[in-house]
Design a protein that fits this description.
Helix content is 36%, strand content 42%. It has helices at 2-31, 37-47, 127-143, 154-160; strands at residues 32-36, 50-54, 57-69, 74-84, 91-104, 109-122, 148-151, 166-170, 173-177.
Length: 179
């Protein structure tokens, strides 16, 4: 009889201990939601190529890749570009932007906010292309303001249930915090 009581107590302590250990994890899962950079990049690749137009020229972006940097809460967008100007052959190259981000709870979209041009390089850089690059450079960062980089799916939204109190960039993704 004594041994049965002991086994019952051990099992009870084990169950309660397991519950207490799991409880903080359950609570943590309900208080934050993480979207990996890989998933966001898959979304971007699926949406590409995307185009931006300004005055008389159009930039088409392809093969976009986002990098997530916790320090400074920054997103870095790298993509291939093709700049089209009327009556000229398109110029191809690469573009890199450094940006903060914003989340719109109404549309459930994450977008670039106030991006800055980090670098641009064109494949064929003759005098005419160099002049074009100098003239377009000040417009390139602002052109990508509000560019959607991820739209939460119905499954994401059903897990969130309410608007996040804050959103943070982590190395490798974005975390939504709920208080």
């Amino acid at each position: 009889m004594h041994s049965l009581k002991r086994q019952f107590i051990k099992k009870s302590v084990g169950i309660v201990g397991t519950f207490l250990l799991l409880k903080p994890r359950i609570s943590l899962a309900q208080s934050s939601y993480y979207i990996s950079g890989q998933l966001i990049n898959l979304y971007l690749i699926h949406q590409s190529p995307f185009s931006k137009s300004f005055l008389f020229f159009t930039i088409q972006c392809s093969n976009p890749v986002l990098e997530f940097v916790k320090k400074g809460q920054r997103l870095y967008l790298n993509c291939g570009i093709e700049i089209s100007v009327p009556n000229q052959s398109p110029v191809k190259g690469k573009l890199a932007l450094d940006s903060s981000f914003q989340y719109d709870p109404i549309t459930s979209k994450i977008a670039l906010k106030d991006p800055n041009l980090s670098s641009i390089s064109l494949d064929v850089l003759n005098e005419k292309d160099n002049l074009l690059l100098k003239q377009l450079s000040p417009f390139l960062g602002p052109m990508f303001n509000q560019q959607v980089v991820y739209e939460l799916s119905a499954a994401d939204i059903s897990m969130l249930k309410k608007a996040p109190s804050s959103i943070f960039v982590e190395d490798g993704g974005i975390r939504f915090i709920f208080n």
